[in-house]
Amino acid sequence: MDATDVIERQLNPFPWYQYMRETNPVSYSEEYRSWSVFRYNDVQKVLTDYSVFSSQYMGEQQPIAMSIINTDPPRHRQLRSLVTQAFTPRRIAQLEPRITQIVNELLDKVQPTGKMDVVDDLAYPLPVIVIAEMLGIPPEEREQFKRWSDELVGETQTTGHNPQMEMGMYFYQKIEQRRQEPKNDLISALIDAQIDGQHLDMMELLGFCILLLVAGNETTTTLLGNALLAFTDHPEAMEELRARPELLPDAIEEVLRYLSPVKSMYRMASKDTELGGKQLKAGDFIVAWIGSADRDEEQFPDPDRFDIHRSPNRHLAFGHGIHFCLGAPLARLEAKVALNLMLQRLPNIQRVRDIPLQPSSSYILQGVKHLPITFGK
Q1: How does pLDDT run across 250-283, given as a tens digit for each residue?
Q2: Helix, coil or strand: residue 282
């Protein structure tokens, strides 16, 4: 494959996913020493059956390895219960006025010009500002915040330093400050949260702060970019949403399915098992291709069609089972507010098609680095 083919495959992996679902739905790669799983039912099983497909595939020396994403029950259940106390639906719902204010401020900057880069001007700053404010991070430290986040998902290259270690030291200081002087923010709420008299220990607090930062902004940035990508490729859907904004929640679910922001998740076999007629051994590494599962013909009729009325829509974009994304309500709320205001405020949105799309460099995200659009003033 030459460089152009690689970029095309990254931007449009769906023909490859379809080929793999049809010909080799559970396949082993000698090069990567891992299994890849492509069909909906198999991906769902890998994401759900923690007794066989373990999330504990990292060493335990790093904070993120101690976080909720990398634990199995019973510890996972305890961690999730603790974190849920600090991340309640009520706390999320209360953010809507502030999210609306942030989006309006971001659109105020670009609206007079008749053009914007959806990623740089909205999708990138919005979730960073929201999650930084939730954690109680001052505005001047947000840029640093975002850089670490990009490095951790492989969006930008890391040279000569360890972003996870730097973030760990940064959050360690923040946690110690909050222990002395609690505030009305998520770090203070996480320090307070307890079950059966048990609090999160320092490593778990660090892991959760880092996870929240990364998961809380990278995926929402990608979701917003993918939504505008889908809308500008399907202008009839965009016009229907302008006329009937109440359809937006269903449209967001279809964006999540059609262009799943997280294209893959990882697990490790904790025992010998059989999947799709193949024998997996304990210790084998598994890549569950969510992006493929969400285009599986057996689950979604006419899966390559973008249909904002699709129902049912049991996509796996937020995962499944005990590891279902804790931040899903926040991502959905940010997307609903941002897309609604864009459709209200920006008439005749068009993608600038003579600037080629650049795929995200991340190994887990399906999205684009930039998305220039024009619109009526």
Answers
A1: 999 999 999 999 999 999 999 999 999 999 999 9
A2: coil
Residue 58 is predicted with a pLDDT of 62
Angle 130-163-176 (CA atoms, 0-180°, nearest 5)? 65
- pLDDT, tens digit (0-9, with 9 covering 90-100), for 37-86: 999 999 999 999 999 999 886 655 566 655 677 788 888 888 888 778 77
Give which of 320, 281, 361 is closest to 28, Cα–Cα.
Answer: 281
Distance CA 59, CA 110 (A): 45
53 CB-contact burial (10 Å; exposed 0-12 / middle 13-18 / buried 19+) = buried
The CATH T-level fold of domain 3-25+50-267+318-370 is Cytochrome p450 (1.10.630)
Q: What is the DSSP string of 80-91?
A: HHHHHHHS-HHH
Residue 100 near residue 341 (C-beta atoms within 8 A): yes
35 in Cβ contact with 46 (< 8 Å): no
If residue 331 lies in a helix (H) or strand (E), which one and from where to where? helix 328-345
Note the pTM of the prediction, 2 decimals.
0.93
